[in-house]
Amino acid sequence: MKKLVLSAAVAMMSIGAFGQANTDLTVQLGSSNWAEVDQIGFENENMILQVGDSNEAYVDQLGAWNENSTVQLGISNQAYVDQVGLGNSSEQLQLGALNFASTDQTGFLNSSVQQQIGVGNIAMSTQDGILNEVRQDQTGVLNIAIASQDGMFNDIDQEQIGMGNLAIATQDGDFNTNIQFQDGAGNTAIGLQFGDLNTIDQWQTGTGNTAIDIQLGDDNFAYVTQSGDDHMHTGVQIGSSNSMYISQSN
N or C, which end of the chain is more exposed by having fewer CB within 10 Å? Predict the structure, then answer.
């Protein structure tokens, strides 16, 4: 997939339209903020707004019609965006201090939205393919969300409220969906899918819960809810058209 995308980008560069009509708007209000933008291609758009002190933003765009918006309000936040391909979009919003967000997109028409409110949160999104979507929302302290997609028409939605939660979602294939919701502290949700048309839903409310789901094959489904404290779930499905419903509470 990555070779295909890079080949397409190289082919477009030979047209001669690259190097024209890119747009950037960068505004910084405060002290010791840093912004670095590199645009190569045609009609890429970038906007950076940093209000506060010691914030850093880095944006690289290679291709055409890629769009990025990075807004950081606070102290010592960091944002990284790398877009290679056509029509990819990225939105980053960080409010607070010491938050970190990164988006890496290779391909066509991928979308990533990252929103962080709090202190010391980490959000990382990697997309390689076509028409993949990622949304990461974090409110609290020291939460970590990691999303990775390779394929087409995949969707990851991660929402974290609280402190010290960890969510990891990896999808390799097409038309996969992974939803992870965490409200509390010290919860861990891991969803790994390899194949097509798979779905994982993980919902955690409480403290110290762990949910790990792995699906290898096509058209598998896992739905997990954990309410309370210190629950542990591990689910593995290998094959096709398997379904799993898990509910834990105390």
Answer: C
Query: pLDDT tens digits for 212-236?
Result: 999 999 999 999 999 999 999 999 9
Contact at 8 Å (CB) between 194 and 173? yes
Task: Return d(Cα 76, Cα 121) in angstroms, integer.
Answer: 12
- From the list 220, 217, 214, the residue with the least C-alpha distance to 198 is 220
Single-letter amino acid, residue 174: D
- Amino acid type, 120: G
- Whether 12 has a pLDDT exceeding 70, the answer reads no
Place of tokens 């709090």: 118
Angle at 173 between CA 70 and CA 167, to 5 degrees: 50
Cβ(79)–Cβ(91) under 8 Å? Answer: no
Give, rounded to a whole angstrom, the gap between the first and last alpha carbons of the chain.
45
DSSP 5-42: HHHHHHHHHTTT-TTBS-EEEEEEEEES-EEEEEEEEE
Q: Which pLDDT score is estimated for 20?
A: 73
**Eight-state DSSP code of residue 219:** S
Q: Is the four-CA dihedral 206, 235, 198, 66 of positive or negative sign? A: positive
Who's near 156: CB < 8 A, 6+ residues apart?
A: 125, 133, 134, 135, 147, 149, 169, 171, 177, 178, 179, 180
φ, ψ for residue 42, nearest 5 deg: -135, 125
Q: Work out the pLDDT band at 11, boundaries 50, 70, 90.
A: very low
Tokens of residue 147, six digits: 């999303």
**Residue 201 in tokens:** 């839903």
**pTM for the full model?**
0.91
